[in-house]
Amino acid sequence: MIRILIADDEELIRGALVALLSLEPDIEVVADTSDGRAAVDAVRALRPDVALLDLEMPELDGIEAAEELRSCATTQVVIVTRHARPGTLKRALAAQVRGFVPKSTPAAELATIIRSVASGERYIDAKLAAAALTEAESPLTLREADVLRLTQDGLPTKHIAKALGLAHGTVRNHLSSAMAKLHADSRIAAAAKAHDSGWI
Fold first, then answer.
1. N or C: which end of the chain has fewer CB within 10 A?
2. To which CATH superfamily is domain 2-134 assigned?
3. What pTM, to 2 d.p., does this model score?
């Protein structure tokens, strides 16, 4: 029996996934949650074989949750997303995600993917993989990406500085550099552009 956890903040979709996957004779849904933080806590408590995580959730997105779950070696992570950008796929692979699929995937195919991932294989949607190969690399440094990620969360620069353990002036320098690289006229616009490109 393959034990899985499902995390999606859209109740209708989460409920449908629970119902459909529970019909599979070899799959047991042991938990379902509505945000990334609750998903991480549930995985650590229950140690399912597979965690099926929505990409965009409150608290932690699917990839951030996957990064926190790297230490749970027995649980494989599959990201399910409606807005699949190639840059996001690169982030997911860096987080050692074992599967990356669009929400348009039929339930029967998703069950097959879950079985494949549970047996140690990796599944990446072919169209997303092809797009990732042709996409330009992120021009941002890791620290610039961190600063923009927190900007996107709505934090003022002083709070970003505190969260990252940086001087306020250093944060402003990172933001200025990121804005220049992304040809954005504000830090909010730079964060939005980086997010849309899948770089944060």
1. N
2. Response regulator (3.40.50.2300)
3. 0.71
